[in-house]
Amino acid sequence: MSDKEKLVLIGNGMAGVRTLEELLAVTSDKYEITVFGAEPYGNYNRILLSPVLAGEKTVDDIMLNSVQWYADNNITLHTGKKVVEVNRARREVIAEDGTTERYDRLLLATGSNPFIIPVPGSKLPGVVSFRDIYDVNAMLEASRTRKKAVVIGGGLLGLEAANGLLKQGMEVTVVHLLDTLMERQLDKPAAALLKISLEQRGLKFSMEAQTDSILGEERVRGVRFKDGSEVEADLVVMAVGIRPNIELAKKIGLHCERGIMVNDTMQTFDPRVYAVGECVQHRGDTYGLVAPLFEQAKVCANHLAGYGFALYKGSVTSTKLKVTGIDLFSAGEFLGGEGYEDIVYKDPGHGVYKKLVLKDNQIRGAVMYGETVDSSWYFQLLRDGTDVSELRDSLLFGQHHLGDSGHGGQNVAAKMADDAEVCGCNGVVKGNIVQAITSKGLFTLEEVRAHTKASASCGSCTGLVEQIIAATLGGDYSAAPKEKPLCACTEHTHDDVRKTIRGQHLTSIRAVMDFMEWRSTDGCHKCRPALNYYLISTWPDEVQDDYQSRFINERVHANIQKDGTYSVIPRMWGGLTTPDELRAIANVADKFKIPTVKVTGGQRIDLLGVKKDDLPKVWADLNAAGMVSGHAYGKSLRTVKTCVGSEWCRFGTQDSTGLGVKIEKMTWGSWTPHKFKVAVSGCPRNCAEATIKDFGVVCVDSGYELHVGGNGGVKVRATDLLCKVETEEEAMEYCAAFMQIYREEAHYLERTAPWIERVGLSYVKSRVVDDELGRKALQQRFLDSQQHAQVDPWAERAEKHVDAHEFVPIKQVG
Amino acid sequence: MTANTAVNEMDNEWLEVGRLEDIPRLGSRLVRTSKGDVAVFRTAGDEVFALNDRCPHKGGPLSQGIVFDHKVACPLHNWCIELQTGCAIAPDEGYTGTYPVNVENGVVFLKLED
Ligand code: SRM
Ligand SMILES: Cc1cc2nc3c(=O)[nH]c(=O)nc-3n(C[C@H](O)[C@H](O)[C@H](O)COP(=O)(O)OP(=O)(O)OC[C@H]3O[C@@H](n4cnc5c(N)ncnc54)[C@H](O)[C@@H]3O)c2cc1C
Ligand code: SF4
Ligand code: FES
């Protein structure tokens, strides 16, 4: 036999198997794995039992891991075998039929049991719960021969069951103890709207009704309430809640309260035993939705694999109801209360209700009914704790600047034709995405990106892809954990990495990877450029720039083209040029037979189609005429666009051209998290388009308006006004300080626009405007690091032959 | 038979390319041949591999990509290609030609047909 450790999983459900998948993704040969499942199937998507009941999907459609999957991954699967005993001293698991397996590590994922109200008659044939395929089959069978159904419980599960039975042609009455449906997710106005539209579909309700007993002798025939009234029923569905299934755990002596107690590594009180899923209790909470369970699965796998650094810190959850045609969303502290503020939009005529609950300028909860397109955006803002004070006025109208990507105030995804294009960059149509989600069992945006390439390039279609995922999965899965790791090589986030580099004074990529326990030996094309940037921006005078961790454009200081040639854009300070410079450009184009010369959108000239071997020679000629690299290829300062300004223009209020040149001389050569563009306009007519730049100056009679966070690219965003200053010196000081805080705090590949939306304008103002000493310190750090950065990379390569190996083949044969 | 005698016996097939240290670690150099460009890669552990310098996706020059572990990320659209096999890493699908390489006393040799 093999010398691998043995891992046994009890509970072949969504959380347990997800843990195995996460584990296999990081290490496939550490364990010999055995799985016990009480149900007679592979692993299926329990969430989708609702659409199965409604006749919108079949049982085959909802299988996540077929029996073959277990075989392919060398996992021994015991289906239909309930585990009844675990001998922790001998480390043995024993099933009902006597099957025994030894373990080195044990994983409990026993899920929950539906709660059955202990009233007389609750065990009669015809009384079912709604938890597994067996229950759904029982309901489907009853619906074929019988007419009247009563669903006890007006929560999420009860309503989904009621809707399904209605669709199967039954007459359905929902019995609810309280006067509000889904009271754990909805406030009264939203619940009232929901009730109206369910009634319009034909559901009946019996509110504030307490069940006294279930009537019947051989089989159920009705339900009696405490007030003495009765209702007829051939089928009764109990959907009043779930209880973590801790029967086995308790029996074998693991510490349990409501659920099996686990710590932040998903370990129980017995260090060899882990637990995940609905059966666990973590920091006082139990969960009944898959998103948090999947987070637990990831953390647990990390520890089973022996990496030992991931931590589960609890989850914020959100809910959607899977009743086709009803859009409903709820998250967080949706009821509000003292110290909270509500922003409410109501249009009962159109069946629309939206409420956001705010505290300390952050969204704490949300309820939406009738229009939920923006729910994932609100949920993101909620989980990130984003400061929304600047967005407040338009918050309820949603993220409408996403117009190009499918947010037009309705759920476009569901209505799209299969051959409609979703991702313009990679030519992916809706049908490709739906196909990949269903055939490959995908859940998350990341997975869809990897398999289809949709939203993997410019990202403008991300909102639409998320909608398609939601529509295809039945609106049942709400996004990934809040803190995204930097890439697949690590569990750590951008912020963790930055903090550690500073706190531990790490000065090389190797040191970061070793200290933070990177999973891969060399990192990858995503994390290495990020680490390199974080290192050089944190320790500019100590760190050796690692060229092998830079994208080709930054390595050879030109832009690679589709045919493997390069483009060259020399700097034109503030958009100014001279006859001599133009002559030199013309000569270079002739001499090196450069096929295309183009004026760029950034006020300078692009030489396109230069052969790589010619680059140093082209640069030498441009250098000789006084020109330097324009960094058109870098995550760095790009252009400073200017207009003519007071020197010539009849409207100009200040010397915008001159200020632009000064700013460019100060900022060129700096490396930034993403590219950084500046513009200076001479008056509010704004001919230099300063209000869509990362830093924009609009000159006015009394001084200079400073604008930040603009973007003219994929997602257009106009700048926010940072402040107004009186002199050029101040404009320069604020510019340097703003660039420096962006350099020090934004994530790699995050432009100023999304960065400001994440941290909030008021934060940036507090650091750059309100805090004078802080601003001056930022400016000083910027200027210090510029001393190391302002070296023309072209001159170094043209004259000093730096990196000569980049430009010539190692060998030429034939 | 040692690798050394292998080189001698197949003298006219193994082509001397240059010294190992002429290729940056986690980097690549180009060999220009009559049959097209060949990218020669050096890993962190000083292993050397050679691939046809054309990405199976849209022909991107793999020699210009970022190298990590035994993979290179194409500079045009970030497909990752395995250095040993020339295969694209799933879920992408595709293949580019590989060439045998040999390193002897710090000198890299390449065989153009296999
Ligand atoms: C050359 C130029 C087009 C032109 O012929 O005018 C250009 C060319 C490219 N742009 Fe651009 N952009 C050019 C001005 C712009 C502008 C206009 C401007 O700067 O005023 C914008 C919108 C303004 C903005 O950035 O906010 C622009 C928004 C983008 C974006 C989207 C950025 C975003 O945050 O949404 C990308 C993609 C990226 O950076 O990830 C991009 C990426 C690119 C790349 C680098 C694509 C790539 O990764 O290879 C193109 C390189 C072509 C090449 O090899 O030269 N380019 N690009 C312009 C160079 C200006 C310069 O002198 O340096
Ligand atoms: C109808 C329905 C709709 C839902 N809709 C949503 C939704 O829209 N969104 C959402 O996020 N969540 C939804 N959920 C909840 C979600 O399905 C659960 O949170 C999730 O499946 C729990 O996963 P788990 O692995 O903890 O438990 P389960 O998936 O229940 O897996 C536990 C497994 O362990 C087995 N088991 C138990 N004890 C033993 C034993 N002693 N030996 C062997 N096997 C054992 C059980 O038979 C079961 O198969 C829904 C649930 C239902 C029932
Ligand atoms: S230059 Fe810019 S807009 Fe034009 S094709 Fe390239 S990336 Fe797209
Ligand atoms: S050409 Fe290589 S990824 Fe597209």
Oligomer: heterodimer
Q: According to CATH, what is the class of the largest domain in chain A?
A: Alpha Beta
Structural class of the helices, strands and pairings of chain A?
A: alpha/beta
Here the CATH topology of the largest domain in chain A equals: FAD/NAD(P)-binding domain
List the strand order in the largest sheet of chain B.
Answer: 2-3-4-8
Uncertain spans of chain B: 1-11
Named CATH topology of chain B: Rieske Iron-sulfur Protein
How would you characterize this protein structure?
Chain A has 25 helices and 39 strands. Chain A has 814 residues and is α/β, with parallel strands linked by helices. Chain A folds into 7 domains: 5-112 and 244-304, 3-Layer(bba) Sandwich (FAD/NAD(P)-binding domain), CATH 3.50.50.60; 127-240, FAD/NAD(P)-binding domain (3-Layer(bba) Sandwich); 318-402, Enolase-like, domain 1, CATH 3.30.390.30; 412-476, BFD-like [2Fe-2S]-binding domain (Arc Repressor Mutant, subunit A), CATH 1.10.10.1100; 494-550, no CATH class; 553-629, Sulfite Reductase Hemoprotein, domain 2 (Alpha-Beta Complex); 637-789, Sulfite Reductase Hemoprotein, domain 1. In chain A, helix 23 (761-770) packs across helix 24 (772-789). The relative contact order of chain A is 0.06. Mean pLDDT of chain A is 90; it is low at 400-410. Chain B has a single domain (2-8, 15-106), classed as Rieske [2Fe-2S] iron-sulphur domain (Rieske Iron-sulfur Protein, 3-layer Sandwich). In chain B, strand 3 (36-42) and strand 4 form a beta hairpin. By secondary structure, chain B is mostly beta strands. The A-B interface holds A 450-451, 457, 520-525, 528-529, 547-552, 555-556, 560, 562, 564, 805, 809-814 and B 15, 17-18, 22-27, 29-35, 37, 40, 43-44, 58-61, 64-69, 71, 73, 75-78, 80, 91. Bound molecules: siroheme (SRM), flavin-adenine dinucleotide, iron/sulfur cluster and FE2/S2 (inorganic) cluster. FE2/S2 (inorganic) cluster (FES) is lined by residues 55, 57-60, 74, 76-79 of chain B.
